[in-house]
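Help!! Second protein's tokens look totally different from the first
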Amino acid sequence: MTEVNNDFHADENQQAGETQSENESLAQPLQEEHLAALPEEHLETLPEQEENYNHLTKEELVKVAEGFAEGDIAVVKSKINALKNAFEQIQSSEKEQALSAFLEEGGVKDDFKYSYTQADDRFQSALKKYNKRKAEYAEQQEKLRENNFNIKQEILVAMKNLIQNEENMQRAFDQFHELQAKWRATGPVPSGQLNDLWMTYKLYTDKFYENLKINRELQELDFKKNLEAKIELCEKAEDLINEPSLNSALQTLHSLQNKWRETGHVGREKSNEIWERFKAASDKVYERRKEYFEQLKERYAENLAAKNQLITKTEELLKDEPLKASEWMEKSKMLVEVQNEWKKVGFADKKSNDEVWAKFRGLCDGFFVRKNDFFTSLKKEHTANLQLKNELCIQAEALIENTDWKKTTEELKRLQAEWKKTGFAGERNNQKIWERFRKACDSFFERKNAHYTSLESDYKENFDKKNALIEKAEQFTLGENIDESIEQLKDFQRQWSEIGMVPLEHKDTIYAKFKAIIDKHFQSIRQHNKERFTSGHKQSFRTGKPGNEKNDLKHKMNQLTGEINTWENNLGFFARSKNADAVRKEFEDKINHAKEEIKRIKKQLDEISQAPKEQ
């Protein structure tokens, strides 16, 4: 079908497949010796009787969904898919009617947008809340199983210790049965842990009776208690014959089977009798399951026949092609009615369901495609759309030479968004006017790209210059005159600052390399000065050199302070963009470097001030 009908029964194939897959996964009736290996989830996949919400209105479906969101997850989880299907069917029909009305008023299919109602939003909100609570419920169940697993492991450890260490037979017997009672009272564990856990439990139980050699009286008492427990299990299993919900009956039977295998022996004379009674009750529940599948098969056949009748009805309806708009609309209405009848029919078996659905959808799709083609040919908006596109071309062409890259880019994007909103301008004009508009946009963006490409070229040249300066700084060695060496290092720093930005991916690496070299040279100078203060500090001050050095340092500090002020003022002129941010970062690095240099100079001034003065 067309866009309007694509969501019509969209989940039908998937749901039918899932139902069949669930049915095939059910286990066969169990023999007693197989109970120990029974998976936890064995009987939990049988589908309940299909719910049918197709008779409800949209508002009623919303209220049901909101009730599900607050209800018992274990109860409502089997009904949610049927509720969603019923809601989607109504929603699909509303979309089709809205599109038909839109096309009648002169609209173009590609421009159609369905406006979701408050009821749609409420329904989706309820589904989200339900899904959240469902996830929380699953998480709680998993945590509960893990906790039960830990409890049963602790019980096994206690059983093992009891078997190995307890010598008092009566006390051991009482304690062991307390552990068994605690074991039976503990809920289900993760299915992957079930068999190993049960086999260990059985091993310890057998070992207990073997090691302690319980006397006959106690053993008979134990058999009596076990027999009473198994009789109670038989009675509960027999009561399941009258349980209205087959799914509930199967799940309860599974629980009873778990309890049966955890209950001890009853003595050989009663063992077969009590087991045959329990098995007979179980077989009756399985017989109900067999009958359910037979009924399901019959219902699938009835649904398949009903769907084939609707296909025949659709073929007859579409036999004659409409010639007028009113005929198209009338036939469209009749086809939607057939679609609504289809929605009310249940599933068939998966293979047949896929085949009839593909055939029915193909018939409907073909009709709506032809209908849309017919109405498209009637449209008269081409001239108006062409005028709108011409106006957008004029506005775009006026921006080609603009150098305000950011603002112009945003404006062109706005014009492009407006262009997308305009309709088709006709086969003869649409491509031509589009090429004109695209040419105007491309011309500006080519100029913009060329501008930033030139900046990248400058960055590469600066990168080469800074690498050359690094090489020069690496080769520099301190001379006899320390002041000259300091000036040379300062000159290296000035040259570095005067060189422009480098590619962003190299900025941090190359600066760190340069800084390490300069810091190394200054460290050598500081070491030299320290040695000079140690060996000839007094004489140096007698000759007046400390005063000269102090003045030079103050002069350098004032110079750096002025540069910092200038750089900080310049930061305010950078706009927020990718390239501007890179330049801003470069200046911020310069400022931080200068501030560190000022700290170092202040430390040198403190050292000079604290040096011994001439007497």
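Here's the second one for comparison:
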Amino acid sequence: MGFLQPLAFIALPLIALPILIHLVNQHRHRTIPWAAMMFLMSAKRMSKGMARLRHLLILLMRMLAVAALIFAVSRPLSGGWLGSIGMSNPDATLILLDRSASMEVQDLQTGQSKRSASLQKLTQLLEQGDYGTHLVLIDSASGQLQEVDSPKALLGLPTTRSSATSADIPGMLESALAYLKANKSGRVDVWICSDLRENDWAVESGRWQAIREELSQLEGVHHFLLAYGDVPSSNLSVRVENVQWWEHGNDAELVLDVVVRSKGSSETTRQGFPIEFEVNNVRSVVEVELDRQGASLQGHRIPIDTKLRSGWGSVELPGDANSLDNRFFFVFAEPTVRRAVVVSDDKKNGEAFLRALTIPIDPRLQHRVDVISTDRIAEGASLLRLTEQWESTGLLIWQAALPRGAVADQIAQFVDTGRVVMFFPPVTGEGSQNAEERLFASHWGDWQTPGYSRQRSAISRQQEDSGISSENLRTDRRQPTTATHSFGVSWWRGDTDLLAHVESGAALPLNELRTYRYRSFESPGTPLARFDDNAPLLTRVATERGAVYFCSTLPTAQFSALEREGVIFYVMLQRALDQGSQALAVVSQRDAGPDVLTDRNQWELVAPADNSPLLSQRGLHGGVYQDGAYLTAVNRSQIEDSATAVPVETVDALFDGMSYRRIDVDVGDTSALASELWRIFLFAMIVALLVEAVLSLPSKRGSVTPLTQKPV
């Protein structure tokens, strides 16, 4: 049980007031014995036991009445979890609101979503009590801190409405932690409203340990998780992938893949399930067979006018538990020429890159590849002058010593426009001689061979045991070895990026790749593949836009089997080219987020026309936006359709060492988080007074009240 006015318990000593009055009344007059009354006093002693019991009950009822009045004034709340709120009001209350697309699952009877229900429950609770001098909202869509005037204001804020984004719970807690440190708040209540999706909580993230350590050091901070972990009984979501515009003679068509996923206890197989397509305001309906996993339309064709060289469309499902994942927007345009530039210091390697990039995955696509020798690039030379179509180039392959000066600046600008650069090691030159050649905080080291690697490990152990410096061992480290063995790949990321599994789910054959030489490098990036000696094969360096990759070996037979085996090398380069070309296309598919539309200033909403978001909320909702000839479709991320709930035990473990309570709520539960019990205590006070009044009445047989003689 919790109390909204715990200071009322200061009056608890008043419970002893009836006892005090009784004692004072007992000693108010001095009793003088009187012989004439001796007979009456003897008669009274015969009923003394029952009278004393009645007097004790009267005294007890008076004490209970006072206690009930004090408890009523303290405004008690029901709910055992509220006991952790404590005996004092908070100085501040922080609300971390999950606005992700999955929070829009609704109860079909009440029409409330998880997000709106959590807001209403929390608003009602905060209005009943004291939320402190500061009420701060941190919403998952914008990630910004916003001070709110009152709990009621939460219901009308644009930053508490639905969005198509995903949540970052660790990031929200980091923002809350920064606020607590900056404001040095005393007692703080932190409320987290979430549906426990695994992508939102990122329980495997390394950030949780630091968050837990810092929050556990703050005194007076109490965490409450309003958890909506229930799964909808039946919900379908739709996505569109691989949208392509093709022209055949005098006809044109769109080719796309449609995937319908099912969540919850899905219904049985349904024939004739309708899917509505809309292309530039022209609608059509296709009926499919729906099974327990959902439905799929691969290579669905939609005829369009040949004059329609670009445009937008959407795919929509009938209404169900979550209306936010029932529609998916897409954009299309005629394919452009995909261009790549290869800078190489070795002719054979340059030809290997040329062969892998020239042949497109789809024969209807056109590829153009320029190969430039490093001899043509002098210090300060511009790649723009050496490449005819530099502005339309999507991929740059740099297989040479890392550039400096104007060329390095031009490559950095190339990445800032969203395009892709892949660095491969130079054939010649020692890393120690080029230590100053750094780009994207990365630097090439020395060439490694299997024998060299084993020798280096032995030298490292010798160095640790004997304390010999690395300079003294440099001559030994460079002794030639015979490459009788090769390096294998022990690990790679198959879920995303350049080495992800193919559409069928099969993994790329990296476990069969043999590497005879690789070049070590220092980089702050994230490895995507590692050799069996734990050295990185492929690394991605984090950038705000675009992508930067470092591959530590070369494709020719002297270095690896990349070109000979072909599949890995071809797929890796083609994916990089596709990724870089998307940044130059006049259409794009983007995941909803606060910065998704910051690359241009004149984006205008094209669809949906009936529900235009505020300017500050653009990019957080699904729709189609246009800026001149450019079109972009904004949708929820793919993980929002497939993520499952994190077990509550796992979530509870994240808050070990902190004051924490979890409140499990179902979306259809309309009851308040807490109800006041003061009426019960007032009723108890009235009952106690009535019982006291009845006990105070004279008995039916009459009673003799002893007389006392006033003092003379």
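Reply: Different proteins will give different token patterns, so don't panic. The longest strand covers residues 234-248.
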